[in-house]
Every structure is written in structure tokens, then in C-alpha cells.
Amino acid sequence: MSNALCRTDDTVLLIVDVQERLLPAIHDGEAVVDRCLRLATAAGTLGVPVLGTEQYPQGLGPNVPALRALCADTFTKRHFAATAEPGFLDWLPACRSVVLAGCEAHVCVLQTAIGLLEHDIEVKLVADAVGSRDPRNRDLALQRLRDYGADVVGTEMVLFEWLHTSAHPAFRTVSRLIR
Questions:
Q1: What is the mean pLDDT of residues 107-124?
Q2: Total domain count, the chain
Q3: In the chain, fewer beta carbons within 10 Å around the N or the C end?
Q4: Does residue 6 sit within a domain?
Q5: pLDDT grade for 179, boundaries at 50, 70 and 90
Q6: Residue 69 to residues 44, 125, 146: CA-CA distances in angstroms?
Q7: Within a domain: 134
Q8: Does residue 1 sit within a domain?
Q9: What pLDDT score was predicted for residue 2?
């Protein structure tokens, strides 16, 4: 586990399964989408690759269009752990760290995070940008992943750590995402 600050270099933002048909069932789903959009917008501004996954989109629909538009690519999967899906690890750019957000915290996010950690990739799990139908399942997933070695962070932590300084050329643009 690394408790280092979030970096823009050697990092990928991975947004897991924020799908149209699943979203109405997610507790505080609109807030999860909002935070994922903030993360993806900031990542795009700062040169961090933004990728998405979709769990069986034929059944659950595609990711929310505004979010899907911010992803450079979207990986379709059937396994709950994206890392167990053939081709996923080859598709994921080489990186030391993945900033992870999406749904459901206790299923696909959890299993993907564990898979990444088992492949020696740091996981920065964005607690306020993950959701589950039952908030108790979300909370259990956050604790389990913290115990497993994920670094549990918040959206604002990630954005300000990516900036590192108020002198960053994108400071005004990114800080507006918080207001």
C-alpha cells in the first residue's frame, strides 16, 4: 500500500460501471455521477488518462453519456473484477497507480480494486465517487479495501493533490470544479 499523494504522472482514472439502468438504484447516484464527472474533467485537463468499464451493457445499458464522453475508451466486461476479464490488463495503460471510482462499491469496484492491488498497482479509491444500492454495502467495501491496501481518498483530495500547488497553470480551471 502506498499512502503517497495522488500524482498525475503514471496514473490512470478508471470509472467503473456508472451505467444508465443501474444508476437509479444506487444510493445518492446523482452525487456519484457528479463526482465522477468532476474527476474525469480534471483528469482530462491535467493529462491523466480517463477510462471506463461497462458491466454487460446489453442488460445494464451504457455508462451515463456525459461520463462516457469524457472517457478515452470504455472496456466491456462480464466479470465483476475487470482484472479477471481477458484482455483488460493489456488494455489498461502501464501505470503505477489507478484512481478508482464508480459502481457498485461492494461488487465491481471492490473486485477490480483487489485485482489491481494483486497486480501491484496502487489503488486510490475515491470514497465519495463510489456507490452501492445500500450505503451499508458501500461502507463495508470501503473498509475492506482500506484493510486490503487501497488508499481511500475523496474527490477534493485527488484534485488538489493532482494540482500540487496553487501556482499550477490549471489551478483556476480545476478549483472551479469544486465550487
A1: 98
A2: 1
A3: C
A4: no
A5: confident
A6: 11, 22, 30
A7: yes
A8: no
A9: 63
In angstroms, rounded to a whole number, what is the distance separating the alpha carbons of residues 129 and 175? 17
Q: What are phi and psi of 84, to 5 degrees?
A: -85, -10
Q: Which residue has the cell 488494455?
A: 91
Torsion over CA: 46, 100, 102, 33 (sign) = negative
In a domain, 4, yes or no: no
Average pLDDT along the chain = 96
The residue range of the domain holding 119 is 11-175
Instruction: Provide φ and ψ at 95, rounded to 5°.
Output: -160, 160
Give the residue from 49, 42, 70 showing the smallest Cα distance to 163: 42
pLDDT score, position 118:
98
Contacts with 18 (C-beta within 8 Å, 6 or more apart), sequence order: 32, 33, 36, 52, 63, 64, 67, 101, 102, 103
Q: Give the CATH number of the domain where residue 128 resides.
A: 3.40.50.850
Torsion sign, CA atoms 37, 106, 1, 53: negative
- The average pLDDT across 132-138 equals 98
Percentage of the chain surpassing pLDDT 70?
A: 99
